[in-house]
Amino acid sequence: MTTSEHEKKEKDRQQAENRLQAGFNAYNDGKLDQAAEAFGDAEIRFRLSGDFKQAGDCRAMIADIQEQNNALEQAVNSYQRALKHYQEADRPLLMASSALSMGHVERRLAHLDRAQDAYQNAQQIYRKQQNSKGLGNVELAMGHIELQRANMSYATEHYQDAIRYFKEANETTNEADASRSLADIQRLRRQFGEAEAAYKRALEIYQQTGDNYGLVDAQVGLGRIYIDQERLDEATAVLAEALSRAGLIEYELGQADANLGLAEINLIQSQVDQALIAAQSALQMYSDQHNALGTASAGRILGEINLRRGQLSYANSIMERSLRTFQAVAYRLGQAETTVGLGLIQYRRGFLSRARKTLEDGLKQAHALDNLQVASRALLGLAYTNKQQGELSRAKSILSDAHDQAEKVDSAIGIPAIAAIEIAQARLDILSGDMKEADHHLEEAEAAANNNFLVGQMLPEILAVRGQLRLAEGDFNAAEALYSSAHNQAEGLQQPEIAVEALLGQAQARLSRGELDAALETFYAVGRQYQVLENTDGDGLAVLGVAQVHIGQQHWDEALEDCEAAMVRFKQADDQTNEADVLLTRGLTYRSREEMDSALNDFEQALRHYHHQRRPLGVADTRFARGSIFLLRKDFERARDEQGKAIIQVERVMNSIKSPERWGTFLRQYAEQYAETAMTDLRQHNDSQALTLLQNFARIAGSQELKAHLQAYEEAIPVGGEELSGEDIQNNTDLVKRLALLRRSL
């Protein structure tokens, strides 16, 4: 090489060094575009001068800048170029470092197979170089991939190997990182003792080495253990400390993680407004940092919060977005939770077919991940979906499976799950007319509520369902008192869905007592609240209640309009259970308008629904209504057949009531129907049968209501007038005498 050539090469190298330094200066000043330009210029000059090591350093810095700018595909290409430069320079450790960094970027892109290939490439080099620290970094990264794939056993093995390599290399900080990752697995497996010990060991190491970022991450992990264990005060304290520390060191992702944990605690404690603020703050931070996994996790929690608040459209939107993100980054653990959450939102919105498919998908994912907590939630959602679609037997079977499953898990999951299942079973038993079982299930839920914070949050719902039970049993005053208490507690705990359900129950109790104006006003208020909550099905219940009030007020046209409006809402929500109630109510309206064929048609459809759903009181009400029409048409045999079948259903339910003292209260609801049945017997000259029927009733429920109805029949039967024939007058006079005799015999 001539002197001039040597001088030119040295000059080019000096210019490359100057451009490299300019790149570092711009980088340190945060001027990333200028830095990238300078590093690119320096790379070319170093490569032309034959300094491939320095060229690789420049390209690696460009890759780092591209990664910070979220230009991930470009970063992968840059790391590949850096690796080639290092290969030319025969720098195997730098090659391995580039391959490792490239794997990290591929993992962020959810290219898990490519990431694994890059890590294995680095692993081969580190093994040849016998570099324990590098091997530890590879094992740690491989563990993250397997965790992302939800392969817990493989992830555990990688983390354990990473800890071993870091110990060999005397890399205590890296060892702490690996221990913390292993603790994450142990926490997910609910091995809380081991996980807590690992997090605390990591905390000690971070404190000794002054690693504040590691301290924040370990504190967040420790806080999540305490949340899972329902040690909420400890969780709040450690997460608040993590949030404060992260703020001091300007660690945005640490702040976001701590805020998200605090949001979960606030939601559990029914501090919904605080939960919303914390989750929104976390979401903003994750978004600013382009952290897809964090953004998806925060979105899932926000979806749950807005589901609780009744903001269903927004909850659905953000949950769908989170699910897409989890799918894009191939994070299976988040997918299962989010899928089930989305299914529950779809159920509440009345999209039952879609909800069923989503919940079944979430259940499969939860079983594949052995996540019994998510599986229990999915089963509960499927049970409610089947209940609304009128598949009560299927719903009971699902709840039975869910109960068996919940008994196999630890109490932190199992007790709240079992309590929710007990409440759901009580709802089904009330519809099925098994009052004793409903009472038993509510007692079980109440017992759990006294000893478990999470179940304590269910007390408003327990009170509301007990109000439903008392309403079915005919104790309208007790029902309203329970509903009122449920409403007040639900509002205090920011549970709007339960609060409006309890208000609906109060309206139904007032209607049952004949307080029509008060009931009407309350049903209107219920409808307005359900509309705010975007609950089509609930709005239908409110409209159905208004229709029933209008029947009581003898406003037949308005009642028919309300029935049609309620039917539209129930069809939108695929609510076949309440469709049956609309058909019965509309049939009663037609009967009052003396449109008997239309009434019988509706009664026939309602009866099919009630039989399919196995709802004995619905069957009884419908058969009594059909019997009254046949009685008016003087088809006494068919009338008595319908009435007899109805009475069998009523008395079967009565016998299922736990306390015999409440039998009379329940039976008094049917005094008019029993009196009408006795009238049918009299029409057929079965006077002794009528007397036996009413005496049996009076022995349980008293005779006051029966006598009033019989008296009304006596006064309504004409015994004179030009429109009657002599035979009619004689028959009616005889019937009135026999009615009076029957009444006095009670």
TrEMBL record:
InterPro entries: TPR-like_helical_dom_sf (IPR011990), TPR_rpt (IPR019734). TPR repeats lie at residues 580-613. The keyword Iron-sulfur does not apply. Residues 62-132 form a coiled coil. The keyword Transmembrane does not apply. SUPFAM superfamilies: TPR-like. SMART domains: TPR. PROSITE patterns: TPR. It holds the Pfam family SNAP. Transmembrane segments: none annotated. This is MalT-like TPR region domain-containing protein. It comes from Dictyobacter aurantiacus.
